[in-house]
Specification:
The chain is an alpha+beta fold. 49% of the residues lie in helices and 17% in strands. The chain has a four-stranded antiparallel beta sheet. It has a four-stranded antiparallel beta sheet with strand order 12-5-14-13. GO terms for molecular function: peptidyl-prolyl cis-trans isomerase activity.
Amino acid sequence: MLQNMRSASQHWLGKIVLTIVFTLLIAGVAIFGVEEFFRGGSSSTVATVGKTQISAEAVRAAYQNQLQRYQQQLRRNLTPDQARALGLDRQVMSQLVTEASLDQKTRDLGLAVPDAAVLRAIHEEKSFQNAEGKFDPSLFYQTLQRAGLNEGLFVREQRSVIARLQLAEAVAADIHVPQAMREAVHRYSTERRAAAYLRLAPSVAGEIPAPTEAELEGYYGANKANFRAPERRSANLLVLSPDTLAKPEAVTEEEVRKVYDTQKDRFGSPERRTIQQIVFPDEAAAEAARKPIESGEKPFEAVAIERGADPKNLSLGTLTKAELFDPAVAEAAFALQQGAVSQPVKGRFGTVLLRVTGIEPENRKPLAEVEPEIRKAIAEQRARSGIDATHDAIEDQRANAKPLADIAKERGLPLVAAEAIDAQGKDPAGQPVAGIPDPDTTLPAVFRAEIGGDNEPLRTKSGGYVWFDVTKIDPAHDKPLDEVREQAVAGWRAAEVTHRLGVKARELQERLEKGETLEAVAGSVGVNVEMVEDLARNQSKDNLDADVINRIFATYVDKAASAPSGEARILFKVTSATMPAYVPGSPSDKTIESNFRTALADDVLGEYIAEVQKKAGVSINQAAFRRAIGGEY
């Protein structure tokens, strides 16, 4: 039995099996109907593992949740093609097949989870605990209700999750990490090296003459891909958005004034007060303490000390009225004059005396300053309510083959004429073309379409639409040498410098191997010897990048080698290699063991699941899968 479900969620399998409960519970189960999801629904089965079925509803819900997570991380919408390019469909199916494999195996083994284990797991879940860390039944039922779950369905799925984790722990528990492996990792990660080196700048290559025609043609022929013109397209884009439909001038002054008066906090900062409080057991004790404070006999702080409170901890902070959790405290505090002490206030957590020690007045922008902003907001809100009707009307006009330019003119909508743009939305000069809405979505669609094609409108992040027609396609092609001669000469020259530096470095390396000192070699080419110490793998240092340093670690001590570094080349000689002694059982060794135990457990679990699937048999209905995720391809 697992001691703690959350500890299991730290490796990939734990995350997979726990995700179906809490991610879908909190984030997305309601999208397609939770009850249908857990029941399996009446639609076709997408896949089976042995006798365990994966329903279309399960696939659809998991795919939509994965898509939403990716879009939140990328901060943009993904088209179906982009989602498939990222492999979201394969990830979701792999996850569901893995879960089904574990469910099938738990049934084959006759594993059963007792009610007490399910109850304990639910009580330990932080989503159902109050501020004191205790299980709160009302919070539990509220959370299930918001997600559309009933208790029976949730408990049934929770029982399944625990069974999967039991099986996973039984397979991968107590994995042994061999000492030889731990020592090899220690050596790799703790070794440090020192080296002496020369930086061979491009000037060391000497004077580079202009290339002959034959040399230039040879370089051009071998590097045509560097001089290839990308595909360019021209397209007209009709943009429909709340911003384009909005008519701020149609908003009346009364409407502006109403918003200004009812949304005060939006146009400035509300009044804030610095509030102190002393808590008493009842109203009588609070009143008895208030009288000497009001008469001046005792200061507020002295009463707090008598109550066992630290005067430094009396302040609730500087807060707005809305930020105070207790309504009674908020009303009383914001009715006081600065420095005054309140009557006893019966709050949610006891009877209190309040004192206001500072007041920051409300700071509100004048109506004239924010009027344009309010007008625009009201107009855009109205436009959103009418955007679907405008969409349908434009679709009718498109069905009648009306050109986008005519529709734009008739409806007063912007028409973006994107001329000769590449797939990144740049013009031939390499500058971004302005006005293309949601380019991450629009540009791929434009470059998939054909001239004269019937293109579906694209939905924008702002809630609008984009219609587009491709008017011209210039295919990608190789630019002739005469057109790119200048770039070709520059490329040939850079390649020649790189070649000559490589030849020079080999020549100098041979001299070092014959016994010459690094100082003598450096003097022959007019450069200085530089020293570097405490080098670590995969980490740049001083003027050496990580690639050069990794080449140093690949070279024997007292041996020389070279590596490219930007336009220059580094010739180096390894002068020393050191590492701390390996101590079995040391803190660093235990860290290595812990990290690799997780990695090995992942491998073992992966092999086990693959074997379960092989024996049980996995069948996927590709057509049903495509329908479930919303795309035929």
